[in-house]
Amino acid sequence: MMLWLVGFVCVLLAIAARQRSGFYTARRLGELREERMSLEARRAELERQIRVASSRQVLVPLAERTLGLHEPSDSEFTVLPVTPSPSVGP
Questions:
Q1: Dihedral sign, CA of 52, 53, 59, 61?
Q2: Close Cβ partners of 71 (under 8 Å, ≥ 6 residues apart)
Q3: Is residue 74 part of a domain?
Q4: Which residues in 1-90 belong to E strands, given as ranges?
Q5: So what's the pLDDT on residue 47?
């Protein structure tokens, strides 16, 4: 009889430990999902900032101010003729 009682208590303890482990795992999974959503939102915000920072509205004034560059007018373009190179025979 005592052996059955010890076995029953061991089974109950194993079930309780397994449930506790399952609850811990479920809680950790929820935390990780929240962290993932937060990181995805941060990534989307950073990608938006990159798009804004690399736009012409930001880069052109920055290049003019810091590098002294300007957008060329039509008269500043030079078209260079391309001549075909002589073919080298065998």
A1: positive
A2: 60
A3: no
A4: none
A5: 97
